[in-house]
Amino acid sequence: MTLEAPTDRRKRRTHTAVLDAAQILFLREGYRGTTIDMLAAEADVAVSSIYANFREGKADVYAALAWRIATRHAEAMSAPTGDESSPRDEMAAVFDRYVTFHQDNPLALRILALTDVDVSESELAAKAKTRIDGVLGELVESFAAAVRRGECDVEARALVLVSWAAVNGAYSLYQRRMVDRSTLDVMLGIARADLLSHIGGPDEA
Questions:
Q1: How far apart are CA 75 and CA 71, in angstroms?
Q2: Would the pTM of this model clear 0.85, i.e. be above it?
């Protein structure tokens, strides 16, 4: 079993349908509240088809979904940011896209950490954790390199991690309904301003 979708067209359709169903159900019902029967019904596939594609069942589905979200995250964050005139503009665009990604993918914070699955439950989950850690680490290093080009006044990697943690923490509080949307927006604005205050370049208009 692999984390990627199968090359066979029919199996790929099943794989994709199951992951799409899992993304809906895990968000709505939670991982523990979702059953294989529920996944099969939502994906409109047989239970046997799920096990044919995901040997360990729900844990493998979770791992494959986590990897799909991680790759989409990397693609979104690594795409060209446009014609930014300075490293500061570049990091402002990167920050905004990081926020947008989590706004559009409310399950990402939880599932990228494989919060609900013990890696001992699934060989695929252990593989997903290693690969996700690698992808996220590469993103941090690429952002830190961009920060360094802007004559950062603090250690670049630490600044990226603090900004990343601030966004994650703000969204975590919002998802737990500890803050409302307007407060979330204020928190994100503070985190963005703090990031940019440490990077050289002209103030944004």
A1: 6
A2: yes
